[in-house]
Amino acid sequence: PADLLSLQEHGLDFQRLLDASAYKERYRQDMIRWGEEKRRADPGFFCRTAVEGATQPVWVVSDTRRLSDVEWFRDVYGDVVQTVRVVATEETRKRRNWVFVDGVDDAESECGLDQGVTFDWVITNDGDELALGEQLETLLRSLRGRL
Q: Does 36 map to a domain?
């Protein structure tokens, strides 16, 4: 929701913010700063916005960035929460046009969950479609079993 809300507030092109383009990089620090201001005022702001008006038996919430986000979902939804971390090697990320930006990629918004969270699932996405599919199928079977 941070990108969507920032888009609405600042008139940015949401589709262009989804890739690793220069457009995204130009606005990324401003989006991070805007998100931090919102979180300081209300730590649950983005989480509540993400689930507002929706009810379903399973939630897949992608791209949480901070321990406070994970804690919010655990506090609100309890034991039904399953945390999933998707990882890729730095080499894979570079092949996907990622370039480390000092002050951005080492900020909490990018690495706030690198420590202090025990994930229920860790999915490796290094470009092996078969391996990725197998991991996702295992995750889906587990989630279906919880319904």
A: yes
